[in-house]
TrEMBL record:
Any one Gene Ontology molecular-function term assigned to this protein's record: crossover junction DNA endonuclease activity
Record protein name field: Uncharacterized protein
Pfam families: Hjc
Protein's organism: Candidatus Nanoclepta minutus
Gene3D superfamilies: 3.40.1350.10
Reaction catalysed by this enzyme: Endonucleolytic cleavage at a junction such as a reciprocal single-stranded crossover between two homologous DNA duplexes (Holliday junction)
Highest taxon listed in the record's lineage: Archaea
Length: 123
């Protein structure tokens, strides 16, 4: 059985295109963090709330970033546009509310901007 048997060709092409866009921006985040001396891993096509895991040793402890990456074609960035993602990350953040060394973030790229808007998430 081929994937075309399960979904239409149009949906398959759109899915592949969305994957490529996601891959591009996840790689961009990975490169930004690696330049800041973070050890970084992608969680490709995981469909989990976290796309990027970054770890950086500090004096006496380890700092951890758990990041969801999004891209938008909108001119402005408002939390209401990303309510679903923010709610999922807030629910996820509850597990780590007592861990001061873990940051959960939503990185949003506008189509034409080079730098992301970074939203810190807490439970």
């Amino acid at each position: 059985m081929f994937i075309y048997d399960l979904i239409s060709k149009k949906d398959y092409i759109l899915m592949a295109s969305n994957y490529r866009i996601g891959y591009y921006y996840e790689r961009k985040v990975k490169n930004i963090l690696e330049k800041e001396d973070w050890d970084v891993w992608r969680s490709p096509a995981s469909h989990s709330p976290i796309d990027i895991i970054a770890i950086k040793p500090q004096k006496g402890y380890v700092k951890i970033k758990l990041i969801q990456v999004k891209r938008t074609s909108r001119e402005d960035i408002k939390a209401e546009y990303f309510k679903y993602d923010i709610d999922n990350l807030k629910e996820f953040a509850k597990k780590y509310k007592d861990c001061e060394n873990i940051e959960i973030e939503l990185w949003i790229f506008k189509k034409q901007d080079r730098n992301p808007y970074i939203m810190k998430i807490s439970s």
